[in-house]
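Continuing the series of single-chain predictions for the mutant panel. This is the parent chain; the variants come on the following pages.
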Amino acid sequence: MGESVVISSRIRLARNLREYPFPCRLDEQGRLEVLEKIKKAVEGLSEEFIFVNMEDLPEYGAVSMVERHLISPEFAKPLAGRALAVSKDESISIMINEEDHLRIQVIKSGAALKEAYEIADKIDRELDAALSFAYDKKLGYLTQCPTNLGTGMRASFMMHLCALSESRTVQRIATNLTKLGFVIRGTYGEGSEYSGALYQISNQITLGISEESAIDNLMSICEQLSNSELQTREKLMESMEYQDRLSRSMGILMTARLISHQEAMRLLSNVRVGICEGIIEDISLNTIDKLMIIIQPASLMSIEGKKLTPQERDIARAKLIKNSLR
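Parent structure:
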């Protein structure tokens, strides 16, 4: 599984403190107590974290974190007792008082699911020793939502399925994967639409299966999807019209004076394929992957440090893309 299809790997662990009710049953004082306990435990970890109080962020700052996949859309809503612990490189984040007391998340570039799990597992064990997580011998880790019972783990890949999207086969594949205990979601997870042909593929089954088995099963599915995507790309590349579309996309991005998020993502998706297929040179995949994140509306405003009108965002986006691709 190469970086041409798999953009990143993510492990997320849902955990709750044994002596406290789930967050939905906690009042403000209870959430603040849980926050203080978790914060103290996180400060004792070997990794250094920055703490962000969600109430202190402007709306676009919180939404920018959703765009960067640091937090869930639900967590962006300001609530007393909610905080995010994030590593300096943003590869590790811990949501405190989301649906569960803790959501430990590790994201790694490329197909590195096992490496992400090793990091998450180490943090999980260290925090469990300090906090004592709610665990049942039969059910496993106890979570607010029954669908997370057991391992409490969601493993996922962010995949660039441009060819399968172009050939309109993603929906059929998604239906078949659901029967096998996997799910294809949009760019920002449950309930979201895909953007730039980016899809999240994750496990659904958490009860009665080990973390290792869940990861192995997802990696097998991901490899099959990658092969199918690459085979479909090969067929599309036989068309001169398709090759022309990839090249033209680069031209538009280099000359546009204003550009919407939707159009930019579509064109960047085309350019990404062009780089992988050798049509577009001297631009790295890393540059494109980074652009796909920072050109989003709230992320643009975070860079500018202020609110922007839709047209101001379109102008700033065009300028940022142009400067990054030069």
